[in-house]
Structure formats: structure tokens, C-alpha cells
Amino acid sequence: MKKTIFEEKVARTFKEKYITTPIVVNAPGRINLIGEHTDYNEGFVLPAAIDKAMVLAIAENGLQECRLYSLDFEEEFKFNLNDFAPQSSGWANYLMGVVDQLQKNGLEVKGFDCVFGGNIPIGAGLSSSAALECGIALGLNELFELGLEKVDLVKIGQLAEHTFAGVQCGIMDQFASVLGKEGHVIRLDCRSLDYSLFPLKLDEHALILCDTQVKHSLADSAYNQRRKECEEGVELLKKYFPAINSLRDVDLDMLETHEAEFDQKVYKRCKYVVMENARVLKACEVLERDDFNHLGQLMYASHEGLSQLYEVSCQELDLLVEETKKLGYVLGSRMMGGGFGGCTLNLVEKDKVAKFEEELKVVYENAFGITLKTYVVKIDEGTRLI
Ligand code: GLA
Q1: Minimal-distance CA residue to ligand 1 atom 2
Q2: pLDDT at site 220
Q3: Torsion angles phi and psi, residue 184, rounded to 5
Q4: Of 25, 80, 201, 256, which one's alpha carbon is 20 to 30 angstroms from that of 376?
């Protein structure tokens, strides 16, 4: 495959720094059409890989040491393969976390050098960290002929996030980054990991991200907290329905019957997840007949639930979604990803894209004094060797 200018730049920097020819990996970020906070509840999601990616150049170095260099931060980090541990924060954790998982699986990782950079905005909810994890996992798999399947890379990336980044994330981000397919969304069953690809025929419509450029600091702790609240709801319902394993097995009837026994907060969390799962299945149904109007309504309903019941939105996201309701050419809008900042995803009539960007920029600037960033999404292939 021919390298892009950016891929060339990463490879060139690698050669200048480490004086050898690396392999180059492109690992994309992701969007999610609908199905938020359902993955760790063994539910359904509808993500896709996008044309914003991390690019990693990697080569063996014959040492016991790994040398990592971030082009974007202009920082080098070194660690010894026999002695390393999570840092208090920072990008190195995503890479070391993967090495740690490979070692825990009994696979031999030898010393390597890695230069990486990308155009996935950090902290925008587009999963730059999952891209980094999946990129290094695929790269090391190739380099050391570890024989791992794609789905193994996905699981290793997810566990790296749990152990080295401290976020008990679900499997959606890594799955989308590795298994994405150009022009398609992935309907993923997060329990069985069965998936199917849906062509997304965006002939007359466009998907646009509005980046709030805020990431409220409670994001990671609130994420783990939501996960706990869902588990608490399952524990309560298990007393009455012993066969259930997760909120995937729960319906609204079961919840409503026992509402009085619930802590109100936990009840709201569970209600949101049960309803969101149903919305993903409905979204797949309407996509079969390219009913984008209906898809848009489901996106608005998803946002409402995330904001009011799951309480992972924030005023910046809520304002952006609310404003779109005044614009007749927007079919749907919602916050995307973990929440507390990041992006909204918008389904817009294609010939109104420029108008949309202009209108929302004015509104956002007036409200928060921040220049809104917008990105028109192209759905791309998953993590690959260049
Ligand atoms: C983050 C996590 C995912 C998923 C989303 C919310 O992106 O990494 O696993 O839970 O939040 O849908």
C-alpha cells in the first residue's frame, strides 16, 4: 500500500532517530453511530473506524530496552522489558500496557523502537488511546510473528487500558479500530463478539463531529463509577431473575416491577442501558432500509438518555445537540463516547455541511468563548500494515 505524507514522515523520523527501516502501521480512531455505554453491559454497539489515525513505525533493536518516541509531544520514553510498571499518566502507558499483556500471554517480545504520531484529536472521544494500543499490538504481532488473530489484538488492547491506563473500558473502541471496514458500520454483539458489517450509504447525508475541546476531569472516575452502578442493578435483579448475567438480559418490565427497591440513581442508569440496547437494534433495522430520518430520531433519543438518565453529558455537549434541533437540515445529533466532553456526532444533509459548521461555530463561540472544531467523518479500514 502507498504511504501517505504523514506515514512517510513517521517512517523518516524513525530512520533518522534509530537508523534502521521500520514496519509502519496505521491504526484508526472510531465513531459510534449509536449504543453508548452498552459495551460493558454485554449489549450492542454500532461503531466504525475513521480516517483519523495513529501511525506507528516499529523495528527490533537487539536490546533489552524499548525506546518510544512521540512525534506530537516530541518526547522520548524508555523502559526495560524485564522491569516496567504503569506511570502516573501519559501516552507510554498504552504502549507498555500492550507489551505487558503480550508477556502475560507467554509471548516473547524482544527490544524494539517505536516512533508514532497521528491526527486523532486527543481527549475528543475518538479513541486515540485504543488506536495506539491496537497499532502497537498489530505491529509487535507482525514483527515478532506472534501468531495472534485480530480479535486477540482487540482483547489485548482492552486489557492494556484496564491495567495500565486504569479505565475499565468495554471492547467497542479496540474492536472498531481493528475490525473497521471502509464505508461500513459494525453491528457488534459485545457478549458473543459476533459482528456484521452494515454498508452506510451516505450519498445524501454526512456525518460531522463537533469537538467541544473540553474534557472534564471526572471523566475516568465517573466511567468506572457508571460501570459499578450497572453491576449493582444486575445484582439486585438477580435475586428475582437468577438467569440474568448483565443488563443485556433485562427488559423495561423487569426493571419497572422492582423500581421501588432500587436506589434512584442506579435505576436511572439501568433504564438508560436497557433502552439504549433496544435503540441499537432498532437502528440496525432502519439502516436496512436506509431510513436516515428514523436513525436521526434514535440519535436524539440516545442523547436525551445519556444526558438525563446516565448523566454523562455536560453543558457544552447539551448545547450543541439542542442547537441542532433548530436546524431543519439536521436529522440527528448526540454526544459520543464516554462523555463529559469530547464530540457530538451529527447526521446532516450533505449539501448543508458548510452552513451547519458556520452556524454551530457562532453559537459555540458565543456561549463558551471556544472556537468549535468540526470534522466531516469518512469511514475507513481498520488497523493495518502499510
Ligand atoms: C469509552 C470506552 C468504550 C465505551 C464508550 C461508551 O469510549 O472506551 O468501551 O464504553 O466509552 O460507549
Answers
A1: 169
A2: 77
A3: -125, 150
A4: 25
